Amino acid sequence: MNDGSARMSRPAEVVNAVIKAYDVRGVVGEQIDSAFVHDVGGSFARLMREEGATQIVVGHDMRASSPELVAAFSDGATKQGLDVVSIGLASTDQLYFASGTLDCPGAMFTASHNPAKYNGIKLCRAGAKPVGQDSGLATIAREVIEGVPTFDGSVGSCTSNDMLSAYADYLRTLVDLSEMRTLIVAVDAGNGMGGHTVPAVLGSLPLTIKPLYFELDGTFPNHEANPLDPANIVDLQKYVRETGADIGLAFDGDADRCFVVDEKGDPVSPSAVTALVAERELGKNPGSSIIYNLITSRAVPELVKEQGGTAIRTRVGHSFIKQTMAETGAVFGGEHSAHYYFRDFWGADSGMLAALHVLSALGEQDKPLSELMAHYERYEASGEINSTVDDAHLRMDEVLAAFKDRASAVDDLDGLTIELDGDAWFNLRASNTEPLLRLNVEARTRDEVAALTDEVLDIVRR
User: Fold this and answer.
1) What cofactor requirement does the entry state (predicted)?
2) For the residues of 282-351, what is the DSSP string, one character each?
3) For domain 164-377, which architecture applies?
4) 43, 74, 99, 112: which one is catalytic?
5) What stretch of H or E contains 208?
6) Calpha distance 337→93 (Å, rounded)
7) Superfamily (CATH) of domain 12-162
8) CA neighbor of 438 nearest in space, from 398, 383, 380
9) Where are the domain boundaries for CATH 3.30.310.50 in the chain?
10) Rounded to whole angstroms, how far apart are CA atoms 358 and 302?
11) Does domain 380-460 have CATH number 3.30.200.20?
């Protein structure tokens, strides 16, 4: 660590590889170390102090490197005159709760679903408002490269505040759980922070929890903590069938995303979860707006319209969802990646809150989950398919040329979206960080999805 003075410059290419568009993330010991994090903490604190903040709340996941990095960050922040409140082990949405409740900026140390060698920081302003490239991260990167300006005032303090119980209590006030029957719930925490938050949030409800991989272990000994990859929910699917569970829940490493498996062990589409939660939120807030990104199932805007709400389509990415929610006052937003955003949760995402909605919906009626969700699963989908390409834009132009005479609608809100007659559509988007094209296809039947997927991939991969 340093003494709080401006340090020698760091190579810009190294810093910019770690301070990304939405967060800080890299390999510990190679890209991220205590000295680097100390300067990030100092720069973030300086920026927040100039905006009027007096304290920062900090939380961390179960990775072995997290406590040391938190200490370095806190040291840098207090040397800039801000107090640091540590909530200790936490999920990312628990940190958002703390930022909202304490009305102060926050820093969550996690690399989410990335492998054990990684760590990182998700930063937010007071009220869980995100900090991105254009709203602070570029400034932090510049100061880490050039040296963080010194502060001549008094050093801040470090205190602790365990907010887990308050977080759990607050979430339960946002969902009507009064009519819920007893359910058997299998939960795969993936050795991540779900093992910390699930007992606190669900333990007092009429649920029999069947835990799987609840031991906090940042080496992820059982499988990657990334339920978006089908390989990582295989254990949960088997466990649901073995235990006779009514539902299965899988959380990612920092437990801000939640994936659902029905009583048969079949995955429930995050789009279907979005539609279910949207319906419930519209029941509480008639006529409200619901946000969905453009590769979410068309069942979502259909259902929102049927329920008297306004469906608003956005680009893929949490920054676009959160910005649009703030601008429109939308009550809820959902993404295909199982991020779910709630106006009543400071516009931030909470997989646990989405899980409570699904549990309540299942528990207040007698149908099994597969039958309940059939109402929301109106289409078949390909899932996201990645192709490595040399020239993504050229490939998209070739796909457009091949389909333009058959297209009923074309737009370029985020990549290329082509709608065809008969409710079929697909989106082709270039990755911002890799030489990849990402394809999502939806249609009424599996055969239609397969045929359309093959046709597009024949062009993309030739």
Assistant:
1) Mg(2+)
2) HHHSTT-EEEEETTS-THHHHHHHHTT-EEEEE-SSHHHHHHHHHHHT-SEEE-TTS-EEEGGGTT-B-H
3) 3-Layer(aba) Sandwich (3.40)
4) 112
5) strand 207-212
6) 16
7) Alpha-D-Glucose-1,6-Bisphosphate, subunit A, domain 3 (3.40.120.10)
8) 383
9) 380-460
10) 20
11) no
Q: What is the pLDDT of residues 306-331, one digit of tens each?
A: 999 999 999 988 878 988 999 999 99
Is 112 a known active-site residue? yes
Q: Is the per-residue pLDDT at 274 higher than 60?
A: yes
Nearest to 66 by CA among 42, 93, 44, 88: 88
Distances (CA, A) of 62 to 123, 222, 225: 18, 15, 12
Inter-residue contact 358 to 273 (CB < 8 Å) = yes
Range 27-31, long-range pairs (CB < 8 A, 24+ positions): 27/117, 27/118, 28/65, 28/69, 28/117, 28/118, 28/119
Is residue 21 within 8 Å of residue 133, measured between CB atoms? yes
pTM of the model: 0.93
- SS3 label, residue 100: helix
**Parts of the chain belonging to CATH 3.40.120.10:** 12-162, 164-377
Total residue count of the chain as it appears in this document? 462
113-142: per-residue pLDDT in tens? 899 999 999 999 999 998 988 889 999 999
Contact indicator for 333, 290 with CB cutoff of 8 Å: yes
Q: What are phi and psi of 179, to 5 degrees?
A: -105, 15
- How high is the pLDDT of residue 3? 44
| Structure tokens, 25 | 């993330």
Closest CA to 22 of 116, 134, 126, 109: 134
- Residue 146 dihedral angles phi and psi, to the nearest 5°: -90, -20
